[in-house]
Amino acid sequence: GNSVTQMEGPVTLSEEAFLTINCTYTATGYPSLFWYVQYPGEGLQLLLKATKADDKGSNKGFEATYRKETTSFHLEKGSVQVSDSAVYFCALSDRRNYQLIWGAGTKLIIKP
Amino acid sequence: SAVISQKPSRDICQRGTSLTIQCQVDSQVTMMFWYRQQPGQSLTLIATANQGSEATYESGFVIDKFPISRPNLTFSTLTVSNMSPEDSSIYLCSGVPRGNTEAFFGQGTRLTVV
Fold first, then answer.
1. How distant is the Cα of B113 from the closest Cα of chain A, in angstroms?
2. Residue pair A44/A89 in contact by the 8 Å Cβ criterion
3. Residue A81 and residue A16: Cα distance in Å, rounded?
4. What is the rounded average pLDDT for all residues in chain A?
5. What is the pLDDT of residue A43?
6. CB A98 to CB B6 under 8 A?
7. How many other CB atoms are there within 10 angstroms of residue B19's CB atom?
8. What gap in Å lies between CA B15 and CA A1, rounded to an integer?
9. Chain B residues near residue A102 by CB distance under 8 angstroms
10. Between chains, do B101 and A93 touch, taking CB under 8 Å as contact?
11. pLDDT tens series, chain B, 114 aa
12. Minimum CA–CA partner of B5 in chain A
């Protein structure tokens, strides 16, 4: 079946550091891939998405590229800020029923 | 996009009682889902809310415990019945608007059962 594996947290970085959160997936067919973010005490927000191979999703300085050959969708940001502290979830969607398969989530802590 | 209003945002309930959570979407959504999120963990799908028919439940979740209604394309409710402390969690609804591929989420309901 479909599954998503993302790196365990917490990930602790200093402000302005480079960020990578790894995400790999297993899926049949051609899923859509997403990164969602959950700020403390809030619901989930879509951060970025990619719907086909080689697509790059980007938003708020974050980027992720849909790599079919490595079944990966790693999240990157060149210079993180304290305000980026949150939990980040990688997910894939089965196009047939729109159900989301979730990674375990990675807590990101940015220190000033 | 879609804006999903979920209420209540939080509640503290006595064991043995029931709580109904409501989600209102500002546009028609094709699919609506209900999730549970235990503290510090990922999301677990409870069920898919089907418009005009019975919800489709995931393994480990049953209709008697989590009855769901979806009377139209913009509204759904989840009831947590006969609550116990193990039901303490965050409950989230989400919807996929027509023509979209991504899901939008309500703000969540933080439930504490005492």
1. 18
2. yes
3. 6
4. 94
5. 85
6. no
7. 18
8. 36
9. 42-43
10. yes
11. 789 999 999 999 999 999 999 999 999 888 899 999 998 889 999 999 988 888 999 999 999 999 999 999 999 999 999 999 999 999 999 998 888 888 999 999 999 999
12. A43
Separation CA B63–CA B35 (nearest Å): 14
**CB-CB under 8 Å, A99 with B45:** yes
Chain A residues whose CB is inside 8 A of the B107 CB are 42-43
- For residue B11, what are the contacts with CB-CB under 8 A and spacing of at least 6? B19, B109, B110, B111, B112
Spans of chain A, pLDDT less than 50: none
Q: Which spans in chain B are helix H? A: none
CA angle A74, A75, A80 (to 5 degrees): 150
Q: Do A99 and B105 touch (CB under 8 A)?
A: no
Between CA B90 and CA B63 the distance in angstroms is 19
Q: What are phi and psi of B86, to 5 degrees?
A: -65, -15
- Those of residues 55-84 in B touching chain A at CB distance below 8 A are none
Q: Which residue has 């193990």 as its token pair? A: B86
What pLDDT shows up at residue A62? 98
Q: CA-to-CA distance for B50 and B70, rounded, in angstroms?
A: 6
Give the span between the Cα atoms of B86 and A68, in whole angstroms. 40
Distance from CA of B78 to the nearest CA of A (A): 17
